[in-house]
Amino acid sequence: MTIFDEIQASIAGLAENAGSSVVGIGQRWGVGSGIVLGEGRVLTNAHNIRGSQVTVTLAGGRTAEGNVAGHDFDGDLAVIDADTGQAAALPWATTEPAIGMPVFALANPGGRGLRVTFGTVSGIDRSFRGPRGLRITGSLEHTAPLLPGSSGGPVLDAAGHLLGINTNRLGEGFYLAIPADEALRGRVDALARGESARTPQLGITITPGHVARRLRRAVGLPDAEGVLIHGVSEDSPAARAGLAPGDLIVTAAGQPVRSVDDLSGALRAAAGTIELTVLRGTDERTIQVTFGPDGQPEGSA
Questions:
Q1: Number of domains, the chain
Q2: pLDDT of 286
Q3: Domain final residue, candidates 192, 224, 253
C-alpha cells in the first residue's frame, strides 16, 4: 500500500466514523460548521452565529433549531443547545500536535454536505485577531484546505481525535485552529452552563499608535508608550471615572500598556474595577474605573 492509499483510507474512514459528528451552522447568513461534543451540545465559532438562535444541519440533512447556551466573542467560541439525535461526540486528542503531523479537516458549510481534506501541521502557538479585533494566541496552523463556511469544523488526527476547531483562514493555503486542550475544555464547559465570557468595556475608542505619537509630538508632548483615547462614550464606565479624549493610558492594573492587546488583557482579568494610570498632557493621574451590570457598551476597548 502506497502513502496515497493510506491517506485515501484515512479520509474514507474519518468521513464514515466522524462525519456524522460534524454539523452545518446557519443557512442564509452566518454560515459555518460545528462539532458535536455531547448529546445536545454543539461547539462552533462565535462569528458563525447571529442572535440567540441558529439552525443546525446534521448528517442526512435533518435540521434542528438550536439556542446559544453561551458565547465568547473575544475567544471566537460558542456552544449551542440543539437536538443532535444519534450523532456521537468527537473524542478529544490526548497528545499535542507537532509540526509535520498529518491532520484532517472536516466541515459541513451551512449544511451543504461533508468535506474532508488532508494536510499537515505547519506551525504551533500562532496568533490571530478575533471577531472584535482582539488577539487570540496559542493557535494551531495547518495546511488542510478549507472552503468558505468551514470555520467551526474540527481538525482531527488520523485516529479521529479532536486536535482543534478551525477558525481563521490565513490565505495561500494556511489555516488556524483553536487547539483542543484542557483550557478549551474548561471554556466549553463554562459556555455550556450559560456562562458567556464578556470582556468589560471601558466605552472608549482608541487612536492608532503611530497617529497617537504624531499627535503628541505636534503639541510638544514627549513620546510615551501607551494607548491614546480618541473618544469616550456618554455615561460609560470611562466617562463616569473621568477619562477624557487625549488621555494616554500607560498602565492598567499595574501592568504597562503598550498596545490595545495589553489593555484588553488587563480588562479581561478585571473583577468589577480596574486601576488605570494615564498621562493628561504631562500630568500623571491614577483613575479607578468601576464596571456595573450595564457598564459594557459597544466599543473597541
A1: 2
A2: 95
A3: 192
